[in-house]
Amino acid sequence: MSRKLRIILLGVYFFVVILCCFILGGIIDLYPKCEYFTNKKIIMLQMIIPLVVFPMIGFIVVVFLKVKKTNRFIYYLLIPILGAGFVLGFLSHKKEKFLYSSVCIVRTAVIKDTYAGNQSNYVDVSFRRGEHRYKRNGVRFLGKGVASTLQIGDSLLVISVKDCEAIMYVYKARPTSEEFLKCQDFGYFYDGKLYSKEEFEKK
Question: What contacts 148, CB < 8 A, 6 or more positions away?
Answer without folding.
Answer: 114, 116
